[in-house]
Amino acid sequence: LAKTTQPISMDSYEGQEVNITCSHNNIATNDYITWYQQFPSQGPRFIIQGYKTKVTNEVASLFIPADRKSSTLSLPRVSLSDTAVYYCLVGARYSSASKIIFGSGTRLSIRP
Amino acid sequence: GAGVSQTPSNKVTEKGKYVELRCDPISGHTALYWYRQSLGQGPEFLIYFQGTGAADDSGLPNDRFFAVRPEGSVSTLKIQRTERGDSAMYLCASSLNDILAGGGNEQFFGPGTRLTVL
Fold first, then answer.
1. Cβ distance of A46 and B108 shorter than 8 Å
2. Is the pLDDT of residue A31 over 80?
3. What proportions of chain B, in percent to the nearest 5, are helix, strand and coil?
4. Which chain A residue's Cα is nearest to B60?
5. Distance in angstroms (rounded) separating the CA atoms of residues A81 and A45
6. Chain A nearest CA to B43, separation (Å)
7. Are β-strands B19-24 and B44-50 bridged in parallel, bridged antiparallel, or unpaired?
8. Backbone phi, then psi, for A81, in 5-degree steps?
9. How many CB pairs under 8 A join A and B?
10. Does A111 score more than 80 pLDDT?
11. Quick one: which of A55, A84, A79, A80 has its CA closest to A68?
12. pLDDT digits (tens, 9 = 90+) for A51-78
């Protein structure tokens, strides 16, 4: 199982772009990279998933370099409501034994 | 559409008692996961079902914990002889996990059951 490393916490201000980087040096060939967001007292919520290069949706962008040993979640123009914990996970997209390791995540705090 | 639901939302019990936590996954999702989350920590994997069978139960901490999914839909996490250390938020998630249907392992989480063992 590929282990991930993220910063414990980050601070930013409303309207700024926030980039959270995750290291996954032992990522396997068939592993995808997935990011989740969690607000207090709620279950995590899927944000974005990718395999290589760049993926963009209405919420965020995910940048993955060619060696895939790291990935960066980019949140454009954050607001106070983006204050949450963000988790980076790696694992096979289709698997009959998908044990998922969340780690401690990155606690993002957005200030006015 | 309906998301993942979990009942009860809160459960307070006494040490040594037996508890059952229920999860209703999204209809049609073949994969179901149970996690435990303590304050300030990420979700800790407990068990994963693919259909009715437990494909991976390596996260269950000991034999006091057991989970079933008899018809491949609703799942129940059962904890015997509860201990104070079992107090946590218990999260359930489901995913389509079906390459033929075009859905991967993106997990949809329920709101959780907060278990407090006194």
1. yes
2. yes
3. 5, 50, 45
4. A99
5. 14
6. 6
7. unpaired
8. -75, -5
9. 70
10. yes
11. A55
12. 999 999 999 999 999 999 999 999 999 9
pLDDT in tens, B5-29: 999 999 999 999 999 999 999 998 9
- Token pair of B78, please? 């059962």
Q: Are B88 and B36 in contact (CB under 8 A)?
A: yes
Give dist(CA B74, CA A13) in Å, integer.
42
Who among B44, B99, B112 is closest to A43 (CB)? B112
Nearest CA in chain A to B53: A96
Determine whether the interchain pair B42/A32 forms a contact, defined as Cβ–Cβ distance below 8 Å.
no
Copy the structure tokens of residue A30: 């068939």
Which tokens hold the place of A52?
A: 């290589």
Provide the shortest C-alpha distance from residue A46 to chain B (in Å): 7
